[in-house]
């Protein structure tokens, strides 16, 4: 086992410049010294010493289709040579056709007419969705959201994100959330099946509407003080927590009874991460708004947006100028987004992702049997979780996972004679969950390699 890695002389010069000239507010230094990378391809990134790292988090699920995907890269290159930029007050073919693809797909799946509105990323699109929701509800600024939920770090998005630390220094500017428990079965009450716990959580939420004295409902006017419920169908930063399949269907019934919109945040779980275009599709409900970003352009050019029901976003209720961003619907982003949709329509992408996810999950379950510190594993498609705990298999153990992440970044593990590093992401309520979001293009031998590298890290962690 190697000691703490020392930065090369060239890297140290860059790190010294970073320390003097760069804001630390836009990054996170998980390890010291931070690694500097020079190239990427497929499921791998290489540092400045040309050391390879297998990446099992893919830029927080922004690069679903692999680093430097040739087909998507070429779509960007071709667009650069034709219409690389145009003011968003004008139209271009890519915006219209990409909107059509998303809206037609939603009509087919949910039976609802709707429209697509673009912005430059996930948090900005959350902000736009808040405007749509507030506008449609006559200015209601209160929202429901989940404990463990993450929706971004802009002012509005952080107000509906459950972590107080993201807004502690900035206060509130309008939106506020009432945070509702998520059916996190592994850490829920004992003695209930997963489905029973899901129903229990819905019943506890429904209590809020039994009487006006529970604080959200006026029975005399049949009005709720809250405009919408923001959900991540599968929690992302919260630790890839997968709810029971009955949960959203029962929750949506309560929301519809009381005129509360459901906004599905698909920023991290959209674009086939869970084996479907939208993760909400697994749960047999009709969302009122979908927010998307990240993997739409495979991380090549920032583009996000929302799909909303026609009644919420048609030009009469949400007219031109309702909200605006200079780089919204930029032609580089829409070109890559269109190519992504074409690429994923040519094969049964959902079946492919589900098969790989099943294979990966079986490997994690095997590791769980051999390492008691793995308290829980679960997955849907290629959104997988591995919860690191104490010897009892339940007490959260953040320190051990931090150690594993640092060891993986040393780049000194050896498999079949090849020296490798392993990039993992940390999530969960207690920051003790490995949230695995490998490339959807990952090969089965690469899954095997990832499991072998994880095994080495677990051995190091248990023997230290």
TrEMBL record:
Keywords: Aminotransferase, Pyridoxal phosphate, Transferase. Its cofactor is pyridoxal 5'-phosphate. One of its GO terms (molecular function) is identical protein binding. InterPro entries: Aminotrans_3, Aminotrans_3_PPA_site, Class-III_PLP-dep_AT, PyrdxlP-dep_Trfase, PyrdxlP-dep_Trfase_major, PyrdxlP-dep_Trfase_small. The keyword Transferase applies. Pfam families: Aminotran_3. The keyword Mitochondrion does not apply. Gene3D superfamilies: Aspartate Aminotransferase, domain 1, Type I PLP-dependent aspartate aminotransferase-like (Major domain). PANTHER family: AMINOTRANSFERASE CLASS III, LEUCINE_METHIONINE RACEMASE. Belongs to the class-III pyridoxal-phosphate-dependent aminotransferase family. This is Putative aminotransferase. It comes from Pseudomonas antarctica.
């Amino acid at each position: 086992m190697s000691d703490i890695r020392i930065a090369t002389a060239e890297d140290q010069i860059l790190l010294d410049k970073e320390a003097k000239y760069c804001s630390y507010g836009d990054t996170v230094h998980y390890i010291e010294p931070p690694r500097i990378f020079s190239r990427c391809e497929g499921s791998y990134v290489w540092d400045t010493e040309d050391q390879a790292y297998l990446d099992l988090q893919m830029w927080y699920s922004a690069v679903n289709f692999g680093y430097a995907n040739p087909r998507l890269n070429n779509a960007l290159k071709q667009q650069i040579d034709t219409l690389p930029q145009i003011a968003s007050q004008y139209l271009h073919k890519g915006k219209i056709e990409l909107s059509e693809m998303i809206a037609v797909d939603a009509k087919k799946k949910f039976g609802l007419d709707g429209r697509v509105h673009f912005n430059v990323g996930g948090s900005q699109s959350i902000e736009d969705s808040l405007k749509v929701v507030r506008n449609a509800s006559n200015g209601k600024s209160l929202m429901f959201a989940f404990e463990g939920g993450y929706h971004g770090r802009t002012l509005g998005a952080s107000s509906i994100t459950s972590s107080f630390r993201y807004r502690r220094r900035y206060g509130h500017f309008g939106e506020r959330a009432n945070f509702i428990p998520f059916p996190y079965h592994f850490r829920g009450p004992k003695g209930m099946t997963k489905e029973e716990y899901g129903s229990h959580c819905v019943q506890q939420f429904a209590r809020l509407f039994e009487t006006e004295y529970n604080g959200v409902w006026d029975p005399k006017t049949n009005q709720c003080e809250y405009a919408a419920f923001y959900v991540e169908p599968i929690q992302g930063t919260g630790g890839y927590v997968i709810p029971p399949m009955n949960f959203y269907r029962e929750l949506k019934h309560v929301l519809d009874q009381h005129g509360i919109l459901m906004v599905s945040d698909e920023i991290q779980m959209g674009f086939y991460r869970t084996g479907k275009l939208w993760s909400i599709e697994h749960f047999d409900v009709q969302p009122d708004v979908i927010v998307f970003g990240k993997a739409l352009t495979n991380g090549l050019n920032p583009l996000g947006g929302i799909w909303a029901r026609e009644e919420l976003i048609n030009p009469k209720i949400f007219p031109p100028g309702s909200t605006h961003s200079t780089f919204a619907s930029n032609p580089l982003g829409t070109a890559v987004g269109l190519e992504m949709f074409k690429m994923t329509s040519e094969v049964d992408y959902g079946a492919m992702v589900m098969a790989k996810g099943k294979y990966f999950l079986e490997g994690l379950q095997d590791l769980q049997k051999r390492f008691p510190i793995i308290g829980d594993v679960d997955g849907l498609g290629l959104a997988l979780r591995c919860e690191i705990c104490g010897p009892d298999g339940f007490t959260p153990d953040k320190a051990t996972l931090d150690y594993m992440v640092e060891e993986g970044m040393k780049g000194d593990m050896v498999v079949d004679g090849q020296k490798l590093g392993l990039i993992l992401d940390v999530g969960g309520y207690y920051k003790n969950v490995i949230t695995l979001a490998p490339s959807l293009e990952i090969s089965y031998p690469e899954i095997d390699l990832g499991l072998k590298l994880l095994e080495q890290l677990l051995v190091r962690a248990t023997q230290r």
